[in-house]
Amino acid sequence: MGDEDPTEKFSLELETKQLGELQESRDELLSRVSHLKRDLQEWRFKLDNQVKSYRSELGDLRKTLNSEVTQLRDEFADLRQTLKQQLEATAEMAAEEKEDDDDDA
Fold this sequence. Notes:
- The chain has 105 residues and is an all-alpha fold.
- It has 1 helix and no strands.
């Protein structure tokens, strides 16, 4: 074994060193990928929660809007009825005044 060629020994040491560096680089990349996956999962979880929250808010807003629209429709119906009654009363008063004027003439 004492006959080992120094070039072969150096070459073997160099390959071993390069393999070690490659393994280290691979481990580092795997770690980064693992962190990125975890970050992505956290981001998705937060996004899902935001979407749920916004949907809930939109549902509440829709209910409130529908309630207010219904209330406005009811108020307009009441107003329409009141105006109709006032117009009828005004028409009756005008008709009575005309009869009175016709009777006076």
